[in-house]
Design brief:
Elements (H helix, E strand, L loop, with lengths): L39 H11 L4 H15 L22 H14 L4 H4 L2 H4 L13 E2 L1 H5 L27 E2 L43 H18 L6 H15 L2 H8 L3 H8 L8 H10 L4 H5 L10 H16 L1 H14 L9 H7 L5 H7 L1 H35 L6 H7 L7 H15 L10
Length: 449
């Protein structure tokens, strides 16, 4: 029998499968690919805190020589404490800072996580908030790490989409004697007060208010865009132009889209053809709402999906629950249904009926009782039709009187005499009709056919 041989694999300790060593710690970016992605300024502060230095020292040691070699200015504004500069569509220094941090940490995803592709297609006008803000409920959650969300730095975002609260300004509410006398002693970490050192900004005394449905909707729209952009989706000017073309086609043309959104028609046509500059975030939000599309479908047309307004989804549940728990409201609705069964017409619209019953709006009344809503709409429609007939007869009588008094035989002169607005098409049609009947009548010398 032959001897059994075993092969022993010799492992070279120098040949490791670990990634190459980086100059700075490979600190992971929090919230990549989600709506709660971390901001660039927060990451820079956490990176400095992990190395036990202040952000100013980190930038002076590793970033400033790199920028000066490229002929750029000093990046002091990115480590400021009173303003946020994580977002900018024109700052060359900001892009150089992102490239340098990617080199120092060895993380390529810093470029996408810092939203550089998104910022390249947006205008800088009204993009960033110059006030440091945060959500108190997000900081109060002890299960989440302390960091600053990039969503809080967008000027159009006024609320937290997760908790439905308005963002508050980061202002220290501690007394003067409880603050640091030396600012160098204060830790540079988002979520920790720079004046008194309060963890999770518990020193803040600003009143926390619930956000409106529109503010929450805008925050969710921005959050979806942040999730897509930070996840590495391809965002380009060509894609934005395609998204704007879809908005124009959905409304039937630039004029209709301009009337619905309030955006200048020339600006819409120019951007849809790629001939004008970058759109602002406020402009894209207005176009998205007017065309019933999501903001993501405009910036990334490949990710198009019909928008679902969340406040409309929860509306019927809330109003039905209120009717189930309010017997007085049920009784008022039943009385209104009985009265509308005997009415031919009513001057009260569906919205007016809803307010008289203590309901917020007509759609809420429709969700509570569709039968009563339909009866109110039909009765009010008949009332408006009766008013139109009465006004038409009064106008015919006035034209006949003016014609008999010899004011004029011209429709324009009679309209001016009766002070009829020329833009009112149906009134001018009635005037022409009545004037033609008077001119063709036998009393005017015309034989009756």
């Amino acid at each position: 029998m032959g001897k059994a041989t075993s092969k022993v694999e010799v492992i070279d300790p120098c040949a490791s499968h670990a990634p190459p060593l980086s100059t700075l710690y490979r600190l992971p970016w929090i919230g990549v690919g989600t709506a709660y992605c971390e901001s660039l300024r927060s990451y820079l502060w956490r990176l400095a805190f992990a190395h036990c230095v202040v952000p100013y020292r980190l930038v002076e040691t590793f970033v400033r020589p790199y920028m000066e070699a490229q002929g750029l200015g000093r990046p002091w504004s990115f480590v400021g404490t009173g303003r946020t500069y994580s977002l900018s569509s024109k700052s060359i220094e900001l892009r150089a800072l992102v490239d340098r941090l990617s080199q120092l940490t060895g993380l390529d995803m810093i470029v996408s996580a810092s939203l550089q592709s998104l910022l390249s297609v947006l205008s800088g006008a009204g993009l960033v908030s110059r006030i440091e803000r945060f959500c108190p409920a997000c900081y109060a959650d002890e299960d989440t790490p302390l960091y600053g969300q990039v969503m809080w730095e967008f000027d159009v975002v006024k609320a937290c989409p997760k908790h439905g609260l308005r963002l508050v300004q980061a202002i220290c509410g501690s007394p003067i004697e409880g603050r640091f006398h030396n600012r160098q002693e204060a830790p540079c970490v988002r979520g920790v007060c720079r004046k008194c050192g309060s963890i999770r900004m518990q020193c803040n005394r600003e009143q926390v208010l619930p956000a409106s449905a529109e503010e929450v909707r805008i925050a969710r729209e921005i959050g979806e865009v942040i999730a897509v952009a930070s996840g590495g989706a391809e965002i380009s000017k060509a894609g934005l132009v395609r998204g704007l073309e879809m908005c124009v086609a959905a409304k039937g043309g630039p004029r209709s889209l301009s009337c619905a959104s309030g955006v200048n028609r020339t600006s819409i046509s120019g951007m849809a053809h790629g001939r004008r500059g970058k759109p602002t975030m406020q402009m894209l939000l207005a176009l998205a709402k007017a065309s019933d599309r999501s903001l993501v479908s405009i910036i990334c047309p490949t990710l198009y999906r019909p928008i679902v307004w969340r406040e409309e989804v929860t509306l019927s549940r809330n109003v039905l629950r209120r009717r189930r728990l309010d017997p007085e409201l049920n009784e008022a609705i039943e009385k209104a249904k009985a009265s509308y069964a005997c009415l031919e017409s009513s001057p009260l619209s569906a919205a007016g009926l809803a307010k008289s019953l203590g309901i917020s709006s007509g759609p809420s009344l429709k969700s509570m009782d569709p039968e009563l809503y339909a009866a109110a709409v039909a009765a009010h429609g008949r009332y408006k039709a009766e008013l139109r007939l009465a006004e038409e007869q009064a106008l015919r009588d006035a034209v006949s009187l003016a014609f008999a008094q010899g004011v004029s035989t011209s429709a324009v002169q009679i309209a001016r005499h009766l002070k009829i607005f020329f833009g009112s098409e149906w009134r001018m049609n009635v005037l022409h009709d009545e004037l033609k009947r008077l001119m063709d009548s036998p009393a005017n010398g015309k034989p009756c056919e």
